[in-house]
Amino acid sequence: MCGIVGVVGNSNATDILLQGLEKLEYRGYDSAGIFVTAGDKTALIKSVGRIADLRDKVGNQELGDRGIGHTRWATHGKPLEENAHPHQSETGRLTLVHNGVIENYAELKEDYLAGHHFNGQTDTEVAVHLIGKFVEEDGLDTLSAFRQALQLIKGSYAFALIDKEDADTIYVAKNKSPLLIGVGQGYNMVCSDAMAMIRETNQYMEIHDQELVVLTKDSVSVQDYSGNSLEREAYTAELDLSDIGKGTYPHYMLKEIDEQPSVMRKLISTYADANGNMAVDPAIVKAVQEADRLYIIAAGTSYHAGFASKQFLEELTDTPVELGIASEWGYGMPLLSQKPLFIFLTQSGETADSRQVLVKVNELGLPSLTITNVPGSTLSREASHTMLLHAGPEISVASTKAYTAQIATMAFLAKAVGQANNNTKAAAFDVVHELSLVAQSIEASLSDKEMIANKVEELLSTARNAFYIGRGNDYYVAMEAALKLKEISYIQCEGFAAGELKHGTISLIEDGTPVIALMSNNSILAPHVRGNVAEVAARGAHVLTIVEEGINKEDDDIVVSSVHPYLSSIAMVIPTQLVAYYASLQRGLDVDKPRNLAKSVTVE
Ligand code: F6R
Q1: Average pLDDT over every residue of 568-580
Q2: What mean pLDDT is predicted for residues 545-552?
Q3: DSSP, res 272
Q4: Mean pLDDT over each residue of the chain, to the nearest integer
Q5: Are residues 383 and 420 in the same domain?
Q6: Ligand 1 atom 7: residue of nearest CA
Q7: What residues make up the domain containing 527?
Q8: Residues 369, 467 within the same domain
Q9: 29 C-alpha to center of ligand 1: Å?
Q10: Do 273 and 294 share a structural domain?
Q11: Could you tell which of 346, 347, 372 is best to mutate to test the pocket of ligand 1, judged by most ligand atoms within 8 Å of the CB?
Q12: 86 prior amide bond cis, ω within 30
């Protein structure tokens, strides 16, 4: 999704902006641009497509010591150069980049900007014209004009604004969209994602909603919209530059798939002590103990991780678990229980749909827990409690290690609560031992990459559609596996409850339709899935089986080494991640940056 980077007071501004935008590429975008100034010289360069195209256009000429850059993921207006940011005011004096969606841009245009000429269709251009009108037509200084516009603008935004007549400043404001200040030595930065600043600094400052920041090379002034100064301390981020590199890997996705055994081990060392005792924050354990129902709110892959955790959470905490799709719950909550606890599962901690639910939960004064990979992210800051996934930055758009880390983190939470409640199943579930077996199972699956790549070639090289089927937890894995396959290979794929096929969808099975059947080690369910496999095979389906050791048969295709049933989703998903990876690779697609998608979905 859109990304912002800005820098003031560094003579390498152009390069810092381009490198920052490259670091934001993983979030998904369709066009990009930068604006740089040096004294009274300015340059505005935009391009549709990759940052590499923008770099070519910039060449070596455009030097500056202050600038703002943007990657755009189209919402209002097509991905064309005239819609790419930065945008400028009527006279060109002010230049703005924006993430988010301005809900009342049409009204603002009509009420304030009659006679203005617009180059494109974006809401952002309306915003910069509005600020520009207050400066250029009404004679306000830039700060007052910005403040006045912020009082009128409704919606979500992260703004970075430059006035070319004010040589030393970047003006910044945010509401609902992420934005951070980076504090450098003799210069300062602003960015929508810490990762784009990590080369320059690890000292960051948060900006909260409805705050405005005046940034110069040696000062950061945080204010509310009435102009009152606010105190803000910088903090040191724990990000490591090497975490965000690809190393020798051809793609981030493959690197992140391979990192999963070490993520499991990292979680063991974080959430258990050397004696195997749980090291989960007692306040979080208490919050779960006090709840009469757990509401897991999430989107996409994180939503699937919620389902994969539901059974063990219920059994170990003795508390019913309900799942909510964030984008649905933001607009209508069902009847809640008396003592709900909301659990937000989110890799990025920035998903606008999930945040919208959290805002409602906070308005209702209800307790919440965010489980996220990104410390300091919006959902982490705004929830009552946070548990971290410790998976390291996930750069590939297709989420892999965050999904498995979410299930493992939930397992620690469930075990800690179960233990505190003297739940007998919790006493019998040695989560540390079981997760170390999971790490080994993942390693075994990862050592079979070549075999999986060959199977994928046989099964999917000409496929336009496919099915994953499973029962119980395997059904939830099927949902995740199908999402992964479709998002990066563009093969239409459905994850289906195996027994439900015959109630309608089996009519889609024809000669050669790929069906991938998942069977974890469940003696009640597996024979039924075998029956469903026979049904689709009889109708011409090309079947591939992924089966957990213990119930495997000689002609099964991929055998996964056995783990505790609570954690089978982690082990079973690994081959499906590789299926998606190789299907995308074999089709010559951009594995890490699939079309139309964004890593961090910061619009509703
Ligand atoms: C798919 C994927 C998405 C995210 C979803 C929620 O591979 O990554 O479906 O899971 O956009 O994002 P987070 O977890 O950041 O809230």
Answers
A1: 98
A2: 96
A3: B
A4: 93
A5: yes
A6: 398
A7: 448-590
A8: no
A9: 16
A10: yes
A11: 347
A12: yes
CB neighbour list of residue 4: distance below 8 Å, 6 or more residues apart: 68, 69, 70, 97, 98, 99, 158, 160, 179, 190, 191, 192
Q: Judge whether 342 and 358 are in contact, CB under 8 Å.
A: yes
* Same domain, yes or no: 402 and 480: no
What integer pLDDT is reported at residue 603 of this predicted model? 66
Strands 229-230 and 220-224: antiparallel
Confidence of residue 80 (pLDDT cuts 50, 70, 90): confident
pTM of the prediction?
0.80
209-253 pLDDT, tens digit per residue, is: 899 999 999 999 999 999 999 999 998 877 666 667 787 899 999
Of 171, 182, 208, the C-alpha closest to 20 is: 182
Cβ neighbours of residue 462 closer than 8 Å, sequence gap 6 or more: none
Q: Residue 428 corresponds to which tokens in the numbers above?
A: 């019998």
Which candidate, 393, 418, 384, 407, places its Cα nearest to that of 298? 407
Which of 426, 444, 462 is the last residue before a domain boundary? Answer: 444
Query: What is the whole-number distance in angstroms between the Cα of residue 301 and the centre of ligand 1?
Result: 5
Query: Whole-angstrom Cα distance, residue 348 to residue 351?
Result: 7
Give the pLDDT of residue 294: 98
| Band (164; pLDDT cuts 50, 70, 90) | very high
Q: What DSSP string describes 339-354?
A: SEEEEEEESSS--HHH
